[in-house]
Amino acid sequence: MPTALPPPAPEVRAEAARRLDALAKPLGALGRLEELAAWWSACAGRCPADPPAAVRAVILAGDHGVSSDGVSAYPREVTAAMVRALVGGEAGASVLARQHGVALRVLDLAVDADLSDLPGVTDHKVRRSSGALDREDALTAAETATALAVGARVATEEIAAGADLLVVGDLGIGNTTPATALVAASLGAAAEQVVGRGTGIDDARLAHKTAVVERALERARDRVADPVQRLAALGSADLAAGVGLLVAAARARVPVLLDGIVPVAELLVAEDLQPGVVAWCAAGHRSTEPAQRLALEKLGLEPVLDLGLRLGEGTGALTALPVLRSAALLLRDMALLADLAP
């Protein structure tokens, strides 16, 4: 197992905790904002730290073999249409990124369509769709390695562009199925414990989706202990790229604000691949997926928001961003009680 990465500066976190206690307020009166402020200061390596300003969001898109088998309420053609909506500035993540001054980048890792007319979007495409994971591996070993490397390269590019915080989002019809399978395999959970309704499937499709995940876990059971083989068997090119991005960001000591079930599933695998990644991540929101709840408990992460969101695209993390900025501003600009005392 590789050596664990160092966590965000413990001494700065302790300094932030002392400053929070000294602010002009009752102890603990800012609730979870205090935890966020201390985490952000530790990641930045100084106290107080300026709020995240150069925020860059990466939305990783791909189609999935299981999406042809009735695990989603929508056809896979929606994936390509939503990539175009993101590029055109009309998708939910586009609206929020514009509102909050976030640079948004969408990448086609495995969309089952030709999107080559979109400049830069297909530069890192690995394949068209991933394999149907209940019957075959999602990726070959070579494709898995390529996707992991793409994620690391993209993280490096975004950091070189000045990012002080990364947001990771996802896009792809059917992508909660591989994400759920990865969570189940990572935690040793049964399919019925983790499978959720994704885009809003009915009871019959939920039962079918559960059976698909059960078959996938049974097929891959001898290989899931290895995180790279787990990705090949049960993941997808876009999820593998997300794992590579998270590991590279943590190694570069750049924090990441996660979205819903898909990035959290990626984090479980990333933490197995490179211990210590989780300390550099914050959970933007609690999704409606039971797999995300179990994964967050395992990772020790408490989401910033709990609004019943299930859109993906990074929308939950982007909605949480102003809360993180507020926490940093309060720690930096709020008066100290000692300065107000007569």
Largest sheet: 5 strands, parallel
How many strand segments? 5
**CATH fold name of the largest domain:** Rossmann fold
Low-confidence stretches: none
Find the CATH superfamily of the largest domain: Nicotinate-nucleotide-dimethylbenzimidazole phosphoribosyltransferase (CobT), large domain
Any idea of the CATH class of the largest domain?
Alpha Beta
Quick recap:
The protein has 14 helices and 5 strands. The protein has 342 residues and is α/β, with parallel strands linked by helices. The model has no long low-confidence stretch (mean pLDDT 94).
Describe the structure.
Helices cover 49% and strands 8% of the residues. The protein is α/β, with parallel strands linked by helices and 342 residues long. It has two domains: 10-49 and 328-340, 5,6-Dimethylbenzimidazole Phosphoribosyltransferase, Chain: A, domain 1; 55-322, Nicotinate-nucleotide-dimethylbenzimidazole phosphoribosyltransferase (CobT), large domain (Rossmann fold, 3-Layer(aba) Sandwich). α1 (10-22) packs across α2 (32-44), α5 packs across α10 and α9 (227-234) runs antiparallel to α11 (261-273). It has helices at residues 10-22, 32-44, 77-87, 92-99, 141-160, 176-187, 191-194, 203-220, 227-234, 237-251, 261-273, 290-299, 315-333, 337-340, and strands at 55-62, 103-110, 165-171, 256-258, 281-283. This is Nicotinate-nucleotide--dimethylbenzimidazole phosphoribosyltransferase. Pathway: Nucleoside biosynthesis; alpha-ribazole biosynthesis; alpha-ribazole from 5,6-dimethylbenzimidazole: step 1/2.
